[in-house]
Amino acid sequence: MKKLSVFTVVFTLISFSIFSETITFSADSMTGTAGSKKDVTVLSGNACVKTSSMEIKADSIELSGEDFRFITADGNVTGSNSESKMDFTCGKLKFDRITKIARLEDSVNLIDMTNDVDAEAQLIEYNQTTEIAVMQIGVTLKQKDNTCTSAFAVYRKNDQILEMSGNPKIIQGQDSFRAQEITLNLESQEITLDGRVRGTVSDTKKEEKPAEKPVTESEKTPAVEPSSEPEEVKA
Predict the structure, then answer these.
(1) How far apart, in whole angstroms, are the C-alpha atoms of residue 44 and residue 30?
(2) Distance from C-alpha of 211 to C-alpha of 55, rounded to nearest angstrom
(3) For the whole model, what pTM was predicted?
(4) Most exposed: 18, 111, 137, 226, by fewest CB within 10 Å?
(5) What is the pLDDT of residues 175-185, one digit of tens each?
């Protein structure tokens, strides 16, 4: 086993060809081991890791597992998925390169650039293969005129379906909807409410004034012109 100890590595790129995928990474410093089936490499300071589909930046990133299967990022995590067209920020992230499942924690913000969907939660698990995101705790999703909130939600990216439970609520403009479970079709904007349904709908249409009846020539009152001659006074 060969032990690596690098403390002043700045913007150094190293590549691995694993599972037909190349990993490149850079950092201010790096420590780790190489040559075993349980390699561990820790990148510290301006850490950045790139795979064929993911780019991840954080204060520190750990590559671990056989052939660096797991990528764990901690502190000011930002990144993007080029295949799914998703951007994200969070406090912690763990990505499995085999299952293609990413677990994002702590003030997570996930943006689906293709469908203009902006989601926030404390925990989001995203499956890159199925394109499904499971969101938990303090969920807020915004899209078009919709603001959706709940404790739990499943976002099906390919089908453009949002399923919510745990005190779910949808606000569409001035309208609001509540139920035990809510399903929103983000493409057609169709809402399905199930269980203890309630809501408010505002009528924003202005009352139309009745059209005025046109005045005909015969109905017009002729103007009386004042006489210029003095009236004759009878005795």
Answers:
(1) 6
(2) 63
(3) 0.76
(4) 226
(5) 999 999 999 99
